Amino acid sequence: MSNYHIKHLEEYFSVYRKSVRDPELFWSEVAEEHFMWRKKWDQVLDWDFDKAEISWFKGAQLNITENCIDRHLYTRGNKTAILFEPNDPKEPAIHITYRQLHERVSKFANVLKDQGIGKGDRVCIYLPMIPELAVAVLACARIGAIHSVVFAGFSATALSTRINDCGAKMLITSDGSFRGAKSIDLKGIVDEALEDCPGVAAVLVAKRTHAEIHMEAGRDHWLQPLLDDAYGDCVPEVMDSEDPLFILYTSGSTGKPKGMMHTTAGYMVYSAYTFKNVFQQKENDVYWCTADIGWITGHSYIVYGPLANGATTVMFEGVPSYPDYSRFWDIIDKHKITQLYTAPTAIRALAKENLDFVTSHDLSSLRILGTVGEPINEEAWHWYNDHIGKKKCPIVDTWWQTETGGILISPIPFVTPTIPTYATLPMPGIQPALMDENGEEIKGNQVDGRLCIKFPWPSIARTIWGDHQRYKDTYFSAFKGMYFTGDGALRDEVGYYRITGRVDDVIIVSGHNLGTAPIEDSINEHPAVAESAIVGFPHDIKGNALYGYVILKETGEGRDRDNLRKEINQVITEHIGPIAKLDKIQFVSGLPKTRSGKIMRRILRKIASKDTSNLGDTSTLLNPEVVAEIMKEAL
Ligand code: WT7
After folding, report:
1. Structural domain containing residue 238
2. pTM of the model
3. How many domains does the chain have?
């Protein structure tokens, strides 16, 4: 039996049982057998969910990049570590071997040091999906700097908020970025953001689009000349297990984004372990996760998990629709991809296009398909299974979160029998619980409730950067002694889990986590807007789309409504980014509120989904008449 690589269902059950019976023994064996430590731990686990304090492998020392790069040099030095596929298919793909990656990361790390960056400093990375992004992440980890990657689709305001929240001293960016036929002025966004970020002393700029950009004297430096001069070896900083590795922001249902902080050893062990099992990785595989490294999926399953296993991981710069809708299938054919890991939104969008885009390509290299980020509907699951996997590739519907660091519930391909829309069984070490509204655990099968996790796993986030109280309140106070996920789930008769969706005010749009309150706050900045409420409604491709109910100030009332809609979306784009734009905006004279002044979102959700046959109890409303008006004018 192998703890590390599960190959049969019996083995899964026995490994799982062991992981629950004696988690410390289980994880210490995994950690011992498969990773490189400078010093072993004194204590495997120390935890207190009431205080929201968790540490794994206490007292151990390591560097994650030694595990992701150095230790492969003897056995896999000439193997491709990162395969870069550019936005434009006419540009050649780039194979970066483990040896080359070692040199590039070392040089980059030395540049960071020369710029005065050291252990514990925060470095913000705002880059498109080019090799420099993965190299920058690893270079930070090499010297013990804490990286905070901000998705390059975020706006200047979103970027400056994150930079200031984590106190980054340096920003790494590029002149611009390519996205399909468009090129984006990334550096322009950076310049705007940095007007509000006095703490950023240096900006490193990679060249990608060769656009003319402004370089601020004394602050901005072209990256390449610095790399050219840097020494190609960098002794890794020896880190403690619980030293922070990165901060990654995720939106909450209220307030500013939460900087989830992950630490070194536990994150490494868990992301590597789950990658190995969920993708049944073999030596000659070419694995492709289509996410952006700006999200946790990219951190764990493009960079750290695959590299810790010595895998070949693909980085794709472009979009599924460019030059046409066959791009994904073309890449699979061209690089003989063995595992494809993508989002249901992408599958739904591609399933709408002509099937010739798919059938004109050879997809026979595929062995395993994965989905992540949102529930996958049955229709999309079947299309993926029939047309992409040709009914031969198991689909792993992987459920997890930025906060969890790695996949918590997922089938293990060729091990766990799959059922469409079910994330199926917990990974070893994961102890799910379904809770009712009174805080009691719902035992048995064929039940549904709020999904919690009873016991810590190595890659659980350790805190919200700068706000431990909020971490405790958000995740550990709803149900005593448990980590609360914010999701609802059901458990079927055989114990399989199906995620039913968020139970809080977070809406998953195209797989992106969006809190309603931050969007409302930004809309309310528009001079003509008095108040607003955002809800989600079902959308064919995006899963959910956003519906905004907006009350205008008197000054706004005479204005052209379509122009106002455009302006409101413009405000959202500036504050958050285009991903948070509203699909529908309805102007209303009031919002349904309870006597205590709380907006009844349940009613607004029903109206937005055109499901008004039963609005439920409206008797507690302060202003029931407004509901009829909103329904009459609903879009
Ligand atoms: C939320 C977390 C997981 C990395 C990318 C998103 C939803 C995620 C699934 C799935 C149904 C899913 C949940 C979760 N979600 N995976 N397989 N089935 N829902 O990370 O941005 O932190 O979002 O995404 O609602 O809580 P995230």
Report:
1. 61-319+398-428
2. 0.93
3. 2
